[in-house]
Amino acid sequence: MPDTAFMSIIEHAPRAPLAGTKLQLNRTYGSPEDYAKAIEELRAAFPAEDVSTDPAVLEVHGRLQNYTKSFPHSVVVVPRSTEDVVRIVNISREYRMPIVAYGGATSVEGHFFGTDAKGICVDMAAMNKVLEIHEADSDLVCQPGAKWTDINAMLKEKGIPLFFPLDPGIGASIGGMISTGCSGTNAVKYGTAKGEWFLNATVVLPSGEVIKTRRRSRKCSAGFDTLRLFLGAEGTLGLVTEATLRLAPLLPTRVAVVQFPSVAHAVRASTAALNLGVNLQCIELLDALSMRALNAYNTGGTRAWPERDSLFIKIQGATPVFIDESARILRDVAERHGGTGFEFARTEAEAEELWSARKNAMHAGYAMFPGAQAFGTDVWLESSPTLKMLAHRLLSVPVSRLPELVTTIQKDVAAAGLNAPMIGHVGDGNLHAIVIYRDEEEEKAARSLVASMVKHALDLDGTCTGEHGVGLGKKKFLVEELGESTVELMKHIKQSVDPLNLFNPGKLYPD
Questions:
Q1: Where would you tag: which of 13, 194, 214, 405 has the fewest CB atoms within 10 A of its CB?
Q2: How far apart are alpha carbons 79 and 201 in whole angstroms?
Q3: 193 and 217 in contact (C-beta within 8 Å)?
Q4: Does residue 363 sit within a domain?
Q5: pLDDT per position as a tens digit, 103-118
Q6: How many independent structural domains does the chain possess?
């Protein structure tokens, strides 16, 4: 068929309306009597210890760590198999009772909060087993409650020289990692959850049907990739009950730290090193305020950190010769971009000390200010009597635009009279900014500042959420970032898969 004829068919083909329809997802759920019957059926279907309406249990399952405010559910149920999850979903559907998955509870966007309509919280804690290990294929199969830290510890204990390289918050579960499309400090080397680290998943749909997204083979071109529907869908399309994880070789590493005159110098150095092929596993930026916070946090320590914009770096390689050559190139690149005080850890203990400083940077930022607690989120909640909130904004832009983003944000922070330590996965353009405020006046300034941060990131062709997902805190920015038609397409997919809007309603999709 000639191209012109083909284009004529496309132009005149009927189209499902998207942007013009403003699809409204269902917000009508069961009555209190329906909920009571659902809970009665859950109690009949599961052991007594696996179904709870205890207010203390409901409160914990609807609250971020270290917060005083909770968004509780109506009931918490603990399944132990895919069949158990199907039973819960069928009861949810029969009585029009919303259903929300609960994993490691490390999410910072309110993904596992109870909804306005409350509903069923499905706590995956008991579904935490590694079911199969295929060392020759570098993969394993596990349940969604398994935690990445436990998986890596188990592989190490078994003497298997492989690991799962995605490293979000300590305690994050595999189901939550799929749900949010997470990443972490290893992303510069290994990418994110939306790469091919998840090969397959078993998913329970809102209809109660169970699907496998594909088989276990490393490559597959059988149709489009249905697994990607659930990666980043935040539990709104289905509940993952098993997953196949791709593993990577566990290679030796070497840890370094170096200071720079500015964030721009540090970013240019990291980009140059990556472009020269230095095998960087991690390259993390801590701004001068974060380094000052480390000194304030580590009052009993022996090390005083230079309070300058700094990079914490891990080099990875299969052989000492490879690591040494990468280290030489890295030092040269850093010095050419103004780097000073370049220091490699000489022992395992020193390497642990250096990397612990990076890992403690977030907590140090909190501890630097009286009344702060160790948490961060984009959901605005009251958290303590002395410090109302630490607003943790995670943005991502093309790497070359990161200095511009940081510089602009620093100016805005200074103009607002606030403090905002910044930490970045600089190798892939990710920036964590912790905006601190104490009273209503500072809260107003912080809200304005956070909104301007998002605008700056979007203006630089970036995103409002580099790795934490959307949840409650960022859905209002989704149309501006993705466009109205793209968001409407997402809502149409949601409507097709979950017409009753029972799975995690109120999250991800803009109201």
A1: 13
A2: 17
A3: no
A4: no
A5: 998 888 888 999 889 9
A6: 5
